[in-house]
């Protein structure tokens, strides 16, 4: 005999918003329930970084009732949801399939624990405090912490590559490969706006995603600047999915929760560089 689900969309949303308070989201962000009926029952949950078509395919194929993502589907103004546009098509598919969509974005970045705590756990970094603290200093974007044992930048970059899901982008490091790494700053997602905070923190390395050429080179030109490790945006935030799954599992043990392993990183091909300049 199949028992009816006892958890509703509203129940799941309440648990997630308790862990990732909407008040922590930036004012430009779009978080919370964007598709679905709060009163609808939930049996299966899928958690992913991006609400892209392949993830929606997975949700529909697996009978998912609630899709939880880090990145919003509707971040910027939308004036139509016709199926002729990608976002309109996504909304129609979710509604037709009975799939609710919930997003925790910058509120999950700032929460304690949040996105960067999950990244720190994956890398074996013991967290001390936020990199960019807010309010009472217990929440904020990014984290600062330490490794159990110091290791070279070369070894640390390998650690990062092994800890995160594989991408075509891979892992890049900037600095002397022999530099010893003990104190680490990190931020899941695009983090070059906080390079100055990493320098001020006195860490040995800063791990983040989407580092651009000019901010990176300007940073490295500063005396005593920490080394850099640059990873793919999606890979840096994927560890959060397991954290969110644990939040829901504690609140509603009856749920069937799956973390998507579909790689939604924008970059799909990696090729070796050409000959080195003499």
TrEMBL record:
<feature type="binding site">
    <location>
        <position position="109"/>
    </location>
    <ligand>
        <name>a divalent metal cation</name>
    </ligand>
</feature>
<feature type="binding site">
    <location>
        <position position="233"/>
    </location>
    <ligand>
        <name>a divalent metal cation</name>
    </ligand>
</feature>
<feature type="binding site">
    <location>
        <position position="237"/>
    </location>
    <ligand>
        <name>a divalent metal cation</name>
    </ligand>
</feature>
<dbReference type="InterPro" id="IPR002678">
    <property type="entry name" value="DUF34/NIF3"/>
</dbReference>
<comment type="similarity">
    <text>Belongs to the GTP cyclohydrolase I type 2/NIF3 family.</text>
</comment>
<keyword id="KW-0479">Metal-binding</keyword>
<dbReference type="GO" id="GO:0005737">
    <property type="term" value="C:cytoplasm"/>
</dbReference>
<dbReference type="GO" id="GO:0046872">
    <property type="term" value="F:metal ion binding"/>
</dbReference>
<comment type="subunit">
    <text>Homohexamer.</text>
</comment>
<dbReference type="InterPro" id="IPR036069">
    <property type="entry name" value="DUF34/NIF3_sf"/>
</dbReference>
<feature type="binding site">
    <location>
        <position position="71"/>
    </location>
    <ligand>
        <name>a divalent metal cation</name>
    </ligand>
</feature>
<feature type="binding site">
    <location>
        <position position="70"/>
    </location>
    <ligand>
        <name>a divalent metal cation</name>
    </ligand>
</feature>
<protein>
    <recommendedName>
        <fullName>GTP cyclohydrolase 1 type 2 homolog</fullName>
    </recommendedName>
</protein>
<dbReference type="Pfam" id="PF01784">
    <property type="entry name" value="DUF34_NIF3"/>
</dbReference>
